[in-house]
Amino acid sequence: MSKRPVVLVVMDGIGINASEFGNAVKKAYKPTLDELWENYPHTEIKAHGLAVGLPSDGDMGNSEVGHNALGCGQIYSQGAKLVNENIDSKEIFKTETWAQLVKNCENGKMHFIGLLSDGNVHSHINHLKALIAQAKEDGVKEVRVHALLDGRDVPETSALTYVDDIEAFMAGLNDDNFHACIASGGGRMTITMDRYEANWGMVEKGWHTHVLGEGRTFTSAREAIETYRAETGVVDQDLPGFVITANEKPVGTIEDGDSVVLFNFRGDRAQEISLAFDGDESFDKFDRVRVPNVMYAGMLQYDADLNIPHNFLTYPPKIQYTLTEELCKHGIREYAISETQKYGHVTYFWNGNRSEKVDENLETYEEIKSDVVPFEQRPWMKAAEITDKLVEAIKSGNYDFLRTNYPNGDMVGHTGNFEATVIGVESVDLQLARVKKAVDEVNGILLVTADHGNADEMYEKKKKEDAPLKAKTSHTLNKVPFIVYGADVELKQDDNLGLSNVAATVADLLEIEPNEHWNESIIKK
Ligand code: 3PG
Ligand code: CO
């Protein structure tokens, strides 16, 4: 094994786009990244679609599949694809869990909570449709949808498209024996879908909205969305919660004897609400006021180590032979750090959606608390604080492989604010200079990459030349950089290289044998 430490920096959401249009990465002043790119071995690698286990090359990359691929060196069929297959084959409805969910709500309602869009990052509206249709076929009488509005993986103000779509679908099924409708909802960044315990208050608000039926009331989701938009001007992901009523009563509070399915397949933003429904009596993250006796299931199991949730409809990918497992076998000491918003990305996602360590003695993970603010107001986020700790760790000599994720390009990119995102990218670059210096001091090797694009395309493509600019909040289909600094190597230039080729490259640089299951290294031999 090499005595030279290897440091990997994931610049979240910083992809490569040749066009200047809406490109906050090109616009940013980033002397360090430019210098690294110009003077050191580099290549472009794929971070979307089939290269990261998504159903098609039309699917943009995301942090879950990106970090999974980086951390395991292989391409696994991911949640989006597994659920598609499970629904197409109807296997999902032959499971004991589905049968129990149906039976459990014989005298009650079946609730579907989840992100209502076709973003295919956390969920897909087609999966919801399949669940509702089958519920009817299996004799469920009442279905309620609790719709989290997206605008983050899909266009910024597209909520009504999906609301209209699902309502038309439900209207087509409704008859004397079956009734489905939207019962509550709200923007995904205000209720329910917090992650990594950044803000439990969001989940508490979601609980009040979906379960207790408390909050501002409207007679339809459309009325709620249009009213909030007119009053506040905020975009979909930030719309407040709403409760739908008929005759002044909520149409779908969650009660004893109901069944609840969270139809999101991705785990980070699904775990907290799952714990609120499915955790044990020790749950103390907020006062739930009333805890209905329901059967709860996830579309997937979001954490197999911690059994969150206990019931689920699709088995998650069983990610094996991770880089961490391999490094532990060789006694290599790992250090991982990020701020809350991406902490689980460099630990849980990185290690194949596992939150337990392989070897306590060899792995050190550090979290810097994220601010709870709109990130366009603080585009530098905690990049400097992450770097303080990372530089200390590099210099300590206690670690052989260190990794970090700087969230700025992605988290600020998701706000759709171009100027702020430029500053976000510049903040990453400033810190990259500090990391590079520390790497020099210990004679280490620095790898710079990204998990997917975002900041590289900040405006929706114009349909007509004179159309107004529209912010693009979602990820991109672009490739990402891969740079090696501090090692005299030649890199492959191959259109087929992707994030899953990084693990073997890290192994090469640490001078250990890559696991036989991994995709090839990017280094030419
Ligand atoms: C989110 O959850 O914030 C977005 O849907 C995806 O962003 P990420 O994949 O970069 O976390
Ligand atoms: Co993102």
Automatic annotation (TrEMBL):
First-level EC class: isomerase
Domain of life: Bacteria
Binding site for substrate: 122, 152-153, 188, 195, 266-269, 342
Pfam families: iPGM_N, Metalloenzyme
GO biological process, one term: glucose catabolic process
Enzyme Commission numbers on file: 5.4.2.12
Catalysis performed (reactions): (2R)-2-phosphoglycerate = (2R)-3-phosphoglycerate
Pathway: Carbohydrate degradation; glycolysis; pyruvate from D-glyceraldehyde 3-phosphate: step 3/5
Binding site for Mn(2+) 1: 410, 414, 475
Domain Metalloenzyme: 5-513
One GO CC annotation: cytoplasm
Keyword Manganese: yes
Molecular function GO terms recorded: manganese ion binding; phosphoglycerate mutase activity
Cofactor requirements of the protein: Mn(2+)
The BPG-independent PGAM N-terminal domain, residue ranges: 83-303
Active site: residue positions: 63 (phosphoserine intermediate)
Cell division listed as a keyword: no
Sites where the protein binds Mn(2+) 2: 12, 63, 451-452
Keywords linked to the UniProt accession: Glycolysis, Isomerase, Manganese, Metal-binding
Family membership noted in the UniProt record: Belongs to the BPG-independent phosphoglycerate mutase family.
Known function: Catalyzes the interconversion of 2-phosphoglycerate and 3-phosphoglycerate.
Name the record gives this protein: 2,3-bisphosphoglycerate-independent phosphoglycerate mutase
Organism: Amedibacterium intestinale
